[in-house]
Amino acid sequence: MSLDINMIRSSFEKAKPIAGDVANKFYEFLFQDYPASKGLFTDVNMAAQKKALINSLVYIVDHLEDGEKLTNYLKKMGSRHVNYGTEPEHYSWVGQSLLKTFAFFFGDEWTPELKSQWTQAYTFIAETMLEGAENKTPEISQIREKARAICNNLLLETIEEQLDENFKEEVRAKVRSILVQVLEEESEKLFHNKKAA
């Protein structure tokens, strides 16, 4: 990562005193430009979320020289975000909203060079978090696969002896989709609760 760390750090120093305003504007832009993102924050304490955003940025900027520590931090954060329903496309939304927020507050100081540096920094952040997310995904995929297998077996056992063949096919299609959806939702909750514990 060939960043001008001094440029990133000095620009971020100007954002720290107005961190609350920066976080507010970031989420304003995120929800305004990407309305689908609102669903990710339905049951979230937004005051705590905004504080977490700023704390993460502070940690990242403070550890730009420490590649190993920063990489481990970002991978763990990416892994946690799988449990929150974060998809790869959401990283682009966050990146665009973050750059737009900095442009808003930095005004004339938001030069093409500074924008390029922050774009490069955020690209590293997103790519590293996605690596952490990919390492987490197989666990959830395995649970979903097991859920589907359990669903299919229960469904077949329940209706095998009680329904005629035509009705079986119709019921299988409808009930299977409902059960799989419920089991997938429960697997997400299980991982979230497991991580919280």
Structural commentary:
The chain is an all-alpha fold. It folds into two domains: 5-135, Orthogonal Bundle (Globin-like); 137-196. It is built from seven helices and no strands. It has helices spanning 5-15, 19-33, 46-62, 67-83, 88-106, 112-159, 165-196. Helix 4 crosses helix 6 (112-159). The longest helix is centred in the C-terminal third of the chain and has 48 residues, at 112-159. The protein starts with a helix and ends with a helix. The mean pLDDT is 83.
- What is the level-2 CATH architecture name of the largest domain? Orthogonal Bundle
Unreliable sequence segments: none
Helix content bin: over 70%
Instruction: Provide mean pLDDT, rounded.
Output: 83
Give the distance, in angstroms, between the N- and C-terminal Cα atoms.
Answer: 35 Å
How many DSSP helices?
7
Outline, from the CA principal axes?
A: elongated
The largest sheet is: none
String of helices and strands = HHHHHHH
The counted number of beta strands is: 0
- The domain tally reads 2
Oligomer: single chain
Quickly name the level 1 CATH class of the largest domain. Answer: Mainly Alpha
Briefly note the CATH topology name of the largest domain: Globin-like
Q: Which structural class should the secondary elements be placed in?
A: mainly alpha
CATH homologous group name of the largest domain: Globins
Task: Tell me the fraction of residues in β-strands, as a range.
Answer: under 5%
